[in-house]
Amino acid sequence: MSNTTTIVTNPDVRHDYVMIMEGRICNPNGDPNAGNAPRQLPNSHIYATPTSMSNRINQTAELLYGVKNLYHSGNNLDDIQQKYIKDKKTPADLMGDFWDRRGNGGLFASFGKDKKEVIDTGFRGIYRLYPSVSINIPSLIEQAVTSATTNSKGNRTMGNASYIDWIITKGTGTFNACINKQRNNIIDAEYMGQWLISLWHHAMQTASLQRGEWDLAECVIATHSTPYGNAQLSKISNLVSVNVDEQTQTHSIDLGTAPEGVTLTRLSEAIAGLQTQYPPSVNNLT
């Protein structure tokens, strides 16, 4: 295992992530309250939710590694929890069985009648992602589309689809090593390697015909020397400067000097080593 791979997949220390996304003729994250148009802040900047990104990572991990993804089409969290309760299993069993719940999971406040076990074990997510907000204010494009659904007469219905011409967003995330230790190191180096690879390749699972080109341009990984970290996430984010050129629709990324106890790694430079150590298997596609 290369030294860089060892650094970015060390489950015993905190890692922060600064993710730069780029999209062209796309809808990064539709808003159901606005006709599924791109989500927009009052200042006209576009944003994508962390749940949207988590789902893409989880679905890509299912594609690349054959993992069990709880948030799969047709799965119902309440039904699955009830089955685990019926089989006398615990939240820890559910966490261990499903790849995504293991890392991104949330407090199981509804698991069974007795909440004490859940509260005591503290099944909070080890990975946390935060909204990705656009640096530029893109133009919105609307066009009429033919829906796959039909009306009462059996005819296909027409609707509108909203797209963004070009967008660069910046978002953050973190890996909490303290919670990982509290949960007896349920996240290991292999899981972290697969998570980073799936983050890099998430566009493989994107519904391209609906969402368009929406890809990870870069992820800067800030690895701390301690489980609780050596700097605040906001300071880590400020180390990553993104410059955009609206006329040429290009961007560049500059890194500042990391504080003591923090190592900065570009995922684009680490991905080859990660894929060598944790190679995706085409057997999972069969």
UniProtKB/TrEMBL annotation:
One of its GO terms (biological process) is maintenance of CRISPR repeat elements. Keywords: Plasmid. It comes from the Bacteria. This is Uncharacterized protein predicted to be involved in DNA repair.
